[in-house]
Amino acid sequence: MTVQQYTFLFVGLSFSLYLFIAWRARVRDTGGFYVAGRGVPAIANGIATAADWMSAASFLSMAGLVSFMGYAGGVYLMGWTGGFVLLALLLAPYLRKSGRFTVPDFVGDRFESQTARLVALVCALFISFTYVAGQMRGVGIVFARFLEVDINIGVVLGMAIVFVYATLGGMKGITYTQVAQYWVLIVAFLIPVVAISLQLTGEAVPQLGMGSELTSSGQRLLTTLDQIHQDLGFPSYTDPFDGSWDKVNVFCTTLALMAGTAGLPHVIVRFYTVKNVQAARWSGFWAIFFIAILYLTAPATAAFSRYFVFDSLATMEKDQPPAWFEEWEQSGLVIWLDGLDETGQPDGKITYRNGDENELFCPGKGITADEVAALKVAHAQWLDSNGKAGADGRLILRQKGKGKPGPDRDIMVLALPQMAGLAAWIIALVAAGGLAAALSTASGLLLVISSSVVHDFYYRMIRPTATDRERLRLSRIAIGGAVVIAGLFGIYPPGFVAQVVAFAFGLASSSFFPVLVLGIFSMRVGAMPAIAGMVCGIGFTASYILSTVYFDGELWCFGIKPEGIGAIGMLVNFAVAGVLTPFCKPPSAEARDLVRRIREPEEDDSSSPVVH
């Protein structure tokens, strides 16, 4: 069987399983739709949380980022895993004790303000739509390469699948679907990297293989990578704090990702689905355990993919790029425009380029096959800085209106089995895993969007008399609308998957994390400081990201990258709330009682008050 046939088989079987689970778990009330009836076992909820958490960014992009960034890529590993510990210990048990359905629900009741509820709702929608854009893009990338369809068609297919099982089962269906998706994605992630570790080093454990000697040369893998980087003029793969990733940026990005993790609404809501606080704590433990299996393996995947990129391109024959490169070039996600030799003929060389970009090849984001052909024709007239046609063998394509060069890092995990020459069924299995990762997170985000619009806005603010049946019907309609908007973001992405997701974390760290910490641990902070803090925090972070990424502005805030500006936005939020608190009205006795109650849980809190 071919790779495409295996892909159709694995994707078809996995999608059938997801739809079957959603059908069996379909719900008929809002309690089941929003929080799965609060009856999910802790270990099942932990697995589902891990799947919800490990999005297309974790599966597709994280190893690709580490592969290109080297040591600096560790900020994603540290930030995302450390943030989950922060969430499980600092926020989740207390939010579960409150008995609310959503984060805006808690904010509105804790600060006794419909305005605070509305601001939190807007923040939740902003964060969720930013995050879901990366997931839908990831779905499109997988479909484009392995089912040989246009990326946009792949996004539409993913939209249809998510819509069906999210609207059928709500949180209950999504939870048990995510349990299945976790096992699909983790098996798909581990099998190739174990096989490659054995192939390169003879070591079955990838983490050990990354630091072992290559069987072909007897030199350690990481030492080989460092040497190749130095020979090509790149910064060393393992040296810390090189180039623009200095200590300040590493610290700020790690902090932003940690606080953003603890403030993500689609992750927080998962802790509302269990019976009590004890189960919420155990859910956090199991989630961290199952997440660590992938996150501790990602650095090895990154190192192996980096090695194979250098090795396959360095040993290719004249005018004959490696098979994996040619196949991915057909998808428009990587492009090689052949350079010309002194006689004006194609030289068949892919030349590495040094500089701030530290890139090996160029991207084709949203570029059609016809556009690629036209670019290749035009390449004969292209002149480099020395006036020579095609002298360096490559042309950096710039995204329209952005001027941001760089390869599509999202393909590195998907292309790795092909680089290593693994069996066709393994290549197809990775495709199914990538789809599972993207769809699991997309479904959770869509549910947050639906609950924010219908429960927090329509029911709690507009029509408190709405019946359960009416709210359930509107929630399903809201998911349909959210799917369409998410699909448009996937077709017209604001960046590559992990970059978009990192922006979502920055927005969450600057808006939700401070207000939740203050809402739980401070009895003095009232509505006005909380509202002002959220608005200033997310406003500062969003404006900085937009100005520096999409309008080519300078990094005017201490040279901090947009991925890490959420840490400063978080401090702005805390500072504004802290400065205003002494001058504003304190919370009422009822609000202080809520804080006291959730901070001092009873031994048996299974009967926690539930606000419908």
Please specify the SSE layout and strand pairing.
Blueprint: H1 3-24, H2 30-35, H3 42-53, H4 56-69, H5 74-98, H6 103-110, H7 114-146, H8 151-201, H9 206-209, H10 221-232, H11 247-262, H12 265-268, H13 277-295, H14 298-314, H15 323-329, E1 334-335, E2 362-363, H16 369-378, H17 412-419, H18 424-462, H19 468-491, H20 497-521, H21 527-550, H22 565-580, H23 589-599
Antiparallel strand pairs: 1-2
Helix pairs in contact: 1-8, 1-18, 3-8, 3-13, 4-14, 4-18, 4-20, 5-11, 5-13, 5-23, 6-7, 7-8, 7-18, 7-19, 7-20, 7-21, 8-18, 8-19, 10-14, 11-20, 11-22, 14-17, 17-18, 18-19, 20-21, 20-22, 21-22
Any descriptors?
globular; Hydantoin permease; disordered C terminus; 2 domains; mainly alpha; 612 residues; 23 helices; 67% helix; two-stranded antiparallel sheet
CATH fold call of the largest domain: Hydantoin permease
CATH architecture label name of the largest domain: Orthogonal Bundle
| Main sheet characteristics | 2 strands, antiparallel
Helix content: 55-70%
N-to-C span: 52 Å
Class of secondary structure makeup: mainly alpha
> How many runs of DSSP E, i.e. beta strands?
2
Oligomer: single chain
Shape assignment: globular
Strand sequence of the main sheet, in spatial order?
A: 1-2
Number of helices: 23
Low-confidence stretches: 350-368, 378-407, 604-612
Q: What number of domains? A: 2
- In what range is the share of β-strand residues? under 5%
Radius of gyration: 24 Å
The CATH class label of the largest domain is: Mainly Alpha
Q: pLDDT average, as an integer?
A: 77
Order of helices and strands: HHHHHHHHHHHHHHHEEHHHHHHHH
